[in-house]
């Protein structure tokens, strides 16, 4: 009997987005949501830590930066592991890791122990996010890949915002440890659902020559009308058997990937400089300009609100036009917004609310840069590609988190800082533009798949 050849990508594109795929989206959303909540938790418990342990703000700095460094290193290591052992395994292990370490942080007895626990927590957080993004992107049809991946990614900002509401409800009554306790229990509960419900990436299974029946069991949950009897599953990607033993990191620079990889790194790095500088230092600059604490918090919150709205709008646009055009235009618009903010007094609250919201709207392209990475890399090294974009970009976050304070301490005025932020925005726009032009004329070589190589 002749074997049927089923192209998994065509199968996903030609079938409706099923209830099974919505379950995957919800589970990945929960992972990213809890990731955002745990990442933001330290900012809300810092005042209580200073009061209880009688430490200075400077002494707390290593604790605050430990998770950021852990996030970077976790992302850099998790991608290659996921491309070898699978997305699901890494997601489950990393979720358990950051849950357990957040619980350990709740029991910390000194700044040193808390710093260590937060660093290891960051390793888990940094590993979970890129693999959740990758797994989700590998289950959505091409025509809806950007918007559905974006909806899942919004869990990060919603989780970060929710940390403030949870903190205001529990920290005054139960102390700072209660927030970390909640942040530790939630991922452990989530991990149970991940173990029993979340499937492995079907694309990954095809690339790893998993048994056909295992792949068929997953695809039947998407469409029960297709007969998978005696089927062979393929992808429209060439799989070099030797690439399975080589480093996935090396693959990011092979097969004409090098320029695209560097441009994605540069773009995300520059974008996080802007995000962390604005969210970390805009309130301080506005308060020093005579704005009340409440108004400064509202204006900064509008940046995050605008970013969330921008994520969804740009995800919708990227499914309908060139992602390169959408992202490069958005970064260019963010540069103009930074210039506009610089030329208006910070104490003009109404005008700043509008400008900061527009800047956040434009910076929604930051998430789309990650979505673009999921579409740029092939299945064999997609997790590595996405995680390294996020990991390298995290160092931009470290730069942004410290840059505002350094520049202010050296006498820079707020308008000078915002003019300076137009530079990384412009660089990011140029980098994506270069990537788009280059791969329009020199696309990645993806020859027609050989059915036997993936059989």
Automatic annotation (TrEMBL):
PROSITE patterns: MFS (PS50850), SUGAR_TRANSPORT_1 (PS00216), SUGAR_TRANSPORT_2 (PS00217). The chain crosses the membrane at residues 24-46, 58-78, 90-110, 116-135, 147-170, 176-198, 262-282, 294-317, 324-343, 355-374, 386-411, 417-438. It holds the Pfam family MFS_1. It comes from the Bacteria. Residues 24-440 form the Major facilitator superfamily (MFS) profile domain. One of its GO terms (molecular function) is carboxylic acid transmembrane transporter activity. It is found in: Membrane. It is a multi-pass membrane protein. Gene3D superfamilies: MFS general substrate transporter like domains. The keyword Metal-binding does not apply. This is Aromatic acid/H+ symport family MFS transporter. The lineage of its organism: Bacteria, Pseudomonadati, Pseudomonadota, Gammaproteobacteria, Pseudomonadales. It comes from Pseudomonas mangiferae. InterPro entries: MFS (IPR011701), MFS_dom (IPR020846), MFS_trans_sf (IPR036259), Sugar_transporter_CS (IPR005829). CDD domains: MFS_PcaK_like.
């Amino acid at each position: 009997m002749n074997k049927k050849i089923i192209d998994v990508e065509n199968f996903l594109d030609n079938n409706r987005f099923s209830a099974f795929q919505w379950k995957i989206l919800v589970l990945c959303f929960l992972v990213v949501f809890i990731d955002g909540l745990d990442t933001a938790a330290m900012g809300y418990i810092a005042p209580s830590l200073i009061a209880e342990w009688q430490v200075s703000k400077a002494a707390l700095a290593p604790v605050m930066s430990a998770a950021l460094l852990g996030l970077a290193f976790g992302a850099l290591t998790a991608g290659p592991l996921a491309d070898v052992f699978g997305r699901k395994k890494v997601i489950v292990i990393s979720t358990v890791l950051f849950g357990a370490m957040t619980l350990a942080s709740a029991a910390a007895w000194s700044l040193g122990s808390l710093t260590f626990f937060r660093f290891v927590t960051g390793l888990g957080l940094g590993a979970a996010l890129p693999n959740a993004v990758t797994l989700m992107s590998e289950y959505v049809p091409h025509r809806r890949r950007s918007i559905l991946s974006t909806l899942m990614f919004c869990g990060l900002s919603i989780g970060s915002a929710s940390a403030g509401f949870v903190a205001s409800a529990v920290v005054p009554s139960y102390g700072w440890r209660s927030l970390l306790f909640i942040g530790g229990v939630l991922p452990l509960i989530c991990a149970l659902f991940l173990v029993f419900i979340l499937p492995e990436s079907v694309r990954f299974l095809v690339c790893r020559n998993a048994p056909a029946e295992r792949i068929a069991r997953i695809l039947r949950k998407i469409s029960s009308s297709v007969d998978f009897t005696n089927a062979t599953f393929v992808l429209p990607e060439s799989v070099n058997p030797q690439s399975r033993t080589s480093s996935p990191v090396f693959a990011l620079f092979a097969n004409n990937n090098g320029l695209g990889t560097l441009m994605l790194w540069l773009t995300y790095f520059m974008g996080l400089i802007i995000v962390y500088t604005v969210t970390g230092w805009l309130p301080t600059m506005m308060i020093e300009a005579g704005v009340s604490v409440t108004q400064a918090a509202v204006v900064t919150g509008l940046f995050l609100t605008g970013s969330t709205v921008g994520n969804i709008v740009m995800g919708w646009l990227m499914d309908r036009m060139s992602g390169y055009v959408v992202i490069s235009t958005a970064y260019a618009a963010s540069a103009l917004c930074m210039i506009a903010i610089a030329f208006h007094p910070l104490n003009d609250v109404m005008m700043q609310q509008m400008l900061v919201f527009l800047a956040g709207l434009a910076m929604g392209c930051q998430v789309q840069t990650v979505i673009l990475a999921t579409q740029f890399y092939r299945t064999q090294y997609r997790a590595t590609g996405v995680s390294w974009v996020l990991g390298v970009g995290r160092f931009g976050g470290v730069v942004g988190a410290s840059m505002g304070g350094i520049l202010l301490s050296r006498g820079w005025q707020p308008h000078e800082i915002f003019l300076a932020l137009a530079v990384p925005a412009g660089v990011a726009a140029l980098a994506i533009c270069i990537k788009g032009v280059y791969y329009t004329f020199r696309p990645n070589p993806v020859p027609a798949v050989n059915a036997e190589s993936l059989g």
